[in-house]
Predict the 3D structure of the following.
Amino acid sequence: MDYQSVIDKIRDEVRELWGQGRVADYIPALAKVDPRQFGIAVATLDGHEYSTGDAQVCFSIQSISKVFTLAMVTRHVGDDIWDAVGREPSGNPFNSLVQLEYEQGKPRNPFINAGALVVTDRLISLYPHPKDAMLEFVRSLCGNDDIYYDKEIARSERLNADRNMSLAYLMKSFGNIRNDVDTLLDVYCHQCAISMSCVDLARAFLFLSNRGVNPFSGKQVLSVSQAKRLGALMLTCGFYDESGDFAFRAGLPGKSGVGGGIAAYIPGNLAVTVWSPELNRHGNSLAGMAALEHFTTDIGNSIF
Ligand code: GLU
């Protein structure tokens, strides 16, 4: 398969979407990003890499980090996490409070903010230095020791975290948050501010297409079953209240973030990542969604 030609063509096609979405502005530091950027990268399990456009530019991975923290927690606590977090799509915006009250502080899934806050809370209980541990985990997955936290974005998000604090306090009132909320928000805002390029992210997602084994180090990061479950959750819950539409259009497990990134993969084959900062009304990258739809259509391969 000539992946390079496929992604070069997609890069040219999605330009017509520029100007139709909006960069996330509820975190002021994110609003400063130049909207007209697009990168795409493919990493295959047989060791090839392809990229084009702004694929080497680092961006804020935001909610894509929820995949990494869930992997870190499930490998330690196993199924216990599912007592605290559900596994169903929410059908609500990523930061909604409504469902949480009805469902007594148990978030629908680990990829909406409430669920991710519970996962990060457990991570804080597991690791004495959670922020260092997260960076180390992500660096080991992609083999790049330069992955860093964008401190300006972390600070900006922390200063504008009223809604996430509300979620955390509401869940704490139901006994579903164990640590101090300020500590939790500090760690959560840092995980969202991890800065990576499409190329780094494609490498970091390859372990999921490799039955949980990091293909670079040969280490089993997750069991086969845990990797399967993470993929299933991405397929059903990875795109906020647009998860069904992404599954319909691209047919891949994936996770988006409001920084405009999307990381997805085909089991046993490859990881593919895109970044374009303009978002649609659901908070997903407008050009990124279109690019991945084109990608699986053009290569004639998806999980279906
Ligand atoms: N930092 C974001 C928040 O919690 C993450 C949102 C996202 O990418 O979905 O508001």
Notes: Residues 62-63, 94-95, 113, 157, 164, 192, 257-258, 283 surround glutamic acid (CB under 6 Å). The chain has one domain: 3-299. The chain has a mean pLDDT of 96. The longest helix spans residues 113-126.
